[in-house]
């Protein structure tokens, strides 16, 4: 039986106050996005009038509004589940439920973390099904079959268990055995784990979900090889991914590091763009590499994780931290779970800084592309992608500042037009 934990300390009120403030802000931003996109639905921005017809612009607006409505549902469900897990007592109940089987062993902590992850995944599943088979299908993007959807879930669960369970054992052991500086050891392990996943992703993990074949178009391959030579870049290959297997959205990306680095094109992207446009998109991706955006982002992530783990180290032995969040028996596992759940609430209002950092990198990569390819080709490619992916040309500025990792379309195209 779940219980609603007694509100007994100031920390509970601080947590509830922040949750209300963040949830209200998120809902307000989503409503702003809906209103702003609807307001501009019936007129294509003049900059795009010759390239994007009104029906396509309206489709993009309707798609953005539909996603914002789903965002509202996700916000409300997320806030509700956070309350249920914490002051609602679900974590406390799960902790007690595993005790007869595992006692206070490391296995108990791993089982607790795993059960929280499973419950969270099951709660999120209906919205994921709706997003894939209703929202994406309604706008003509979904190509995932029920069988593929289930297969993806099983593979994701298997990978989470394969990598997550050993990592949890190591982390919980370090938390118990390494004294006051346990968080520093965990931080080192966390860095190593991320580097391992980054190294394995291109050649081991990604092929479990998609098929990757070498780029076979001779004319395009020659053009790409010429660009790589001009940029002084060497990779282990240019690959085409069967992105059409799941969606009609198009994209390209750079992945991996060292000998495992690869350039990947979605087959949907190659089907829509001309060779010069593909070259310009690739130059943008190479810009991220040559300008060290990937290591810079990794360093930022590692610095943030250092600060967060230090913060957890200060809270891990404070009973008020547990009791204020509905947990009666402190443990490394419950401390880790509570901190991971609560930290995003307290960090939400600095999210625009992260988004701005990412958008700065996108501008820099665009400038690199303009210097090594044709700026107009990149502009034309982006306009095609905006149209084909139904990306809104008129996002709400505040919503965009919080959530968008890429610059708004009008701002980005304006810069390229003057490059």
Derived structural class: mainly alpha
Which shape, going by the Cα principal axes?
A: globular
Largest sheet properties: 4 strands, mixed
Record the strand order, biggest sheet: 1-2-4-3
- Evaluate the radius of gyration: 24 Å
Q: Per DSSP, what share of the residues sits in E-state strands of 2 or more residues?
A: under 5%
Secondary-structure element pattern, one letter each: HHHHHHEHEEEHHHHHHHHH
- Find the count of extended strands (DSSP E, 2+ residues): 4
Distance between the termini: 64 Å
Query: What is the number of helical segments per DSSP (H or I, 4+ residues)?
Result: 16
Topology:
Layout: H1 10-39, H2 54-85, H3 90-102, H4 106-138, H5 146-177, H6 182-205, E1 212-214, H7 218-231, E2 238-241, E3 252-255, E4 262-266, H8 267-272, H9 275-290, H10 293-315, H11 319-323, H12 332-347, H13 351-372, H14 375-388, H15 397-403, H16 409-417
Parallel strand pairs: 2-4
Antiparallel strand pairs: 1-2, 3-4
């Amino acid at each position: 039986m779940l219980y609603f934990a007694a509100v007994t300390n100031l920390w509970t009120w601080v947590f509830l106050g922040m949750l209300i403030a963040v949830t209200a802000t998120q809902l307000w931003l989503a409503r702003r996005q809906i209103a702003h996109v609807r307001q501009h639905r019936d007129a294509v921005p003049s900059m795009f009038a010759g390239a994007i017809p009104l029906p396509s612009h309206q489709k993009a607006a309707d798609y953005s509004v539909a996603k914002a409505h789903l965002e509202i549902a996700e916000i409300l469900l997320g806030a509700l589940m956070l309350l249920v897990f914490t002051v609602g007592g679900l974590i406390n109940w799960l902790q007690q439920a595993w005790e007869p089987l595992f006692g206070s062993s490391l296995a108990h902590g791993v089982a607790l973390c795993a059960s929280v992850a499973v419950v969270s995944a099951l709660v999120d599943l209906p919205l994921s099904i709706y997003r894939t088979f209703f929202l994406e299908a309604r706008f003509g993007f979904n190509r995932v079959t029920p069988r593929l959807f289930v297969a993806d879930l099983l593979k994701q669960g298997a990978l989470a268990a394969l990598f997550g369970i050993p990592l949890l054992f190591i982390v919980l052991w370090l938390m118990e055995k390494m004294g006051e500086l346990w968080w520093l050891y965990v931080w080192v392990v966390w860095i190593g784990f991320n580097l391992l996943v980054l190294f394995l992703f291109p050649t081991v993990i990604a092929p479990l979900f998609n098929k990757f074949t070498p780029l076979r178009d001779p004319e395009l391959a020659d053009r790409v090889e010429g660009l790589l030579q001009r940029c002084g870049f060497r990779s282990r290959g240019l690959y085409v991914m069967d992105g059409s297997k799941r969606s009609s959205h198009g994209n390209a990306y750079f992945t991996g590091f060292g000998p495992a680095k690869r350039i990947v094109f979605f087959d949907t992207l190659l089907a829509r763009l001309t060779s010069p446009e593909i070259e310009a998109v690739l130059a943008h991706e190479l810009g991220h590499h040559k300008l060290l955006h990937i290591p810079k982002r990794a360093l930022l992530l590692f610095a943030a994780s250092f600060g967060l783990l230090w913060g957890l180290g200060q809270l891990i032995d404070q009973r008020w931290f547990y009791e204020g969040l509905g947990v009666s028996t402190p443990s490394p596992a419950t401390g880790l779970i509570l901190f991971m759940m609560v930290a995003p609430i307290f960090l939400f209002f600095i999210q625009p800084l992260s988004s701005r950092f990412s958008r700065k990198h996108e501008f820099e990569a665009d400038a690199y592309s303009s210097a090594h390819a044709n700026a107009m080709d990149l502009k034309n490619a982006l306009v095609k992608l905006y149209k084909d992916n139904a990306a809104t040309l008129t996002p709400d500025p505040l919503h965009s500042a919080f959530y968008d990792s890429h610059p708004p379309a009008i701002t980005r195209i304006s810069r390229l037009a003057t490059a």
